[in-house]
Structure formats: structure tokens, C-alpha cells
Amino acid sequence: MTARIREFLRNRRDDGPCMVLDLDVVRDNYHAFAHALPDTRVFYAVKANPAPEVLALLASLGSCFDTASVAEIEMALAAGATPDRVSFGNTIKKERDIARAFELGVRLFAVDCKAEVEKVARAAPGAQVFCRILCDGAGAEWPLSRKFGCVPEMATDVLEHAHRLGLEAYGVSFHVGSQQRNTGAWDQALASASAIFRECAERGIHLRMVNLGGGFPTKYLKKVPEVESYGEAIFRSLSRHFGNRMPETIIEPGRGMVGNAGVIESEVVLISRKSEEDEVRWVYLDIGKFGGLAETMDEAIRYPIRTRHDGGPKTPCVLAGPTCDSADVMYEKEPYLLPVSLQIGDKVLIEGTGAYTTTYSAVAFNGFPPLRSYVI
């Protein structure tokens, strides 16, 4: 937690749980990505945190933007990005949304099947498309499902279909899984991308770009490699699989750009036990899965939690949210060690929460207001 966030929380009026994000950290993260991969364009994943202040800062620094909807495209443009710095990276798009993006000047679209190619060809004639391929995501703390992407063997046919329909078959994309701690995770995906480049070239289609996706982690409880380590590993893989014919490359950091820039302040609402003999306490906070901590699902993301009692004896606790939904339990399979002296009314600080918390808390479930966000 930065000194600026600490000072803000010290002086703020208590109005429920909130997330405070320090723009200085976001700025440092952007420069770290730009330095680690100097020949790669950065497309910030807007879905990670679409706060106008974050988007405006990144636009001023020269970032491009990966968007999932027309609304996110409009946010990026309003923040100062030009349409040539925006990618419509969702592979599942309504045709009218493709048309609206094209009207706004966007020319770069993701696809992963022939049906999506046909929608783009009708609504955005002549646009550039890149085909997303599946990869296993081994080593990621938040692995991705098979919802997005096609098997690499299918990608060449998808891109040839785009070419025949008058689109520019521009490249290949993949995502190695969110919170990826294995710096070598990009190697196999790049091997697949290189094979697709060769197969397309044999059909007279010359691809130009590889979208390396996201997956760059932020630090939670476990140590993660520095951004420079990812840059070095990715460059080695690019050299191994593409040789002197290096493609254009882009990355789509989201969590790695804003995750460590934010802290949530929450309050302990209740501490109880389920029986007199139970050694595990239940600690209920005024924020839970439905208030912004959805990534605790399956206990995949374990956030660092700080209290004023740190340093004393700890005891295992089940950590839960305040809603009347039995799924609103963050950590139970592996109880969280919290201070024995923790009391009802105490504040807790949940670190590394600058990404995906405010957007997951978009609806006032059970009447609890969406998570307040302050950008400083």
C-alpha cells in the first residue's frame, strides 16, 4: 500500500467499503511493460478497471486499448485514444456492435470461427482480423476456459475465410491464463502461432501480427516474477519460433497494469463460531464475492489482508461476505489466518485489488451499493 493511499484512507469519511487506486503505480507499471517489451504495443485491457482517470492517464502515455464492448470502445475514445489505438478483442460480438465500432473508426477485430468472420465481413468490410487460438494455460492461478479461441489446426481455415471475404487476415492471438506465474508459458503458444503463419503463407496469406494476450500477474500472497523476466522469456521464444522474420506484437495487460495499484478498505461486521467446540472462526466483512471479490471463486485468488492487529497470534478463519447468499464465502476450503485479537468494527485492508473489483461490483446485489472507487 502506498503512502498516498494510506493518507487518503486516514482522512476519508467512512461510507462503507471502498477501493482506492494510486495512479502513480499505474504509471510505473505502464513504463515497466514498455521497457520490458520495447518493440511491442501495449493494449490495456479496459475490463480490468475502466475508471476514466486510469484510461486518460494511459492514453496520455501512448497506450492502446483492448475492449470487450461498444461501451468500452466509447470509454477509450472519450479518454483520448484514437480509433487506430483500439481493438475490439471480444470474439463474441453482435453484428450491430461490430457495425457501431466500425462507424467509430475501429478497424481491428478478434475472431475465432468462420461465423464471426462473416459478421465482421458484413459489418466492417476491409477490417483487420486476428484469430484467437486455444492454449492450456498451465501455471495460471486463474486459468481460462475453452470459451474463447479455436484449436490451432482450425485457425488457418478461419483466416483464409476472412481473406476470401475481403478482410485483412492480420494475425493470431492467444491468452496463457490470468495471473500466469510461469514466464515460459508463452513458448508453446508462439510455436503454434508460427506454424499458422507458415500454413497461411503457403496459401498466399501473409500474416503480420501476434497478439501475446494478457496473463501478466500482480503480487498477491505468492511472489511473482518481474515484468522484465517475462519480456526476456517472450523475446527468446519469438526468436526461436520466428527467427529473423519477427512479427508485429501486442500485449494486453490488465491485472498486471492496475492490480497492485489498488487497496480495498473493509469493515468486520461479525465474528462467530458454528459450535462451542469449533476452532475455526467465521469472520464476516462488509464486502464479499458480490461486492467486488468475485475472483475468490474456488479460492483462486488469495488477496493479502492487513489489520491493525498484525504481528500478534493468528487463528484460522473462514472469510465471508455480508449478503444473504450461501455462495458469498471467500475462503473456507483453506481458512485464512487472521489475528486472534480481530474485533467487530475493525477495518481490514485487502491489497492487490485494483483489477476487476469495481467492475464485478456493478449491481447492487441484496441492496448493498456497488463498490465505491476513488482514484488518486
TrEMBL record:
Orn/DAP/Arg decarboxylase 2 N-terminal domain segment(s): 25-258
Gene3D superfamilies tied to this protein: Alanine racemase, Lyase, Ornithine Decarboxylase, Chain A, domain 1
Any Pfam family: Orn_Arg_deC_N
Keywords for the protein's UniProt record, in alphabetical order: Lyase, Pyridoxal phosphate
Heme recorded as keyword: no
Cofactor requirement: pyridoxal 5'-phosphate
Record carries keyword Phosphoprotein: no
Enzyme class: lyase
Stored InterPro entries: Ala_racemase/Decarboxylase_C (IPR009006), De-COase2_N (IPR022644), De-COase2_pyr-phos_BS (IPR022653), Orn/DAP/Arg_de-COase (IPR000183), Orn_de-COase (IPR002433), PLP-binding_barrel (IPR029066)
PROSITE patterns for this protein: ODR_DC_2_1
UniProt catalytic activity: L-ornithine + H(+) = putrescine + CO2
EC number: 4.1.1.17
Pathway, per record: Amine and polyamine biosynthesis; putrescine biosynthesis via L-ornithine pathway; putrescine from L-ornithine: step 1/1
Family of the protein in this entry: Belongs to the Orn/Lys/Arg decarboxylase class-II family.
Protein name (database record): ornithine decarboxylase
Provenance organism: Alsobacter ponti
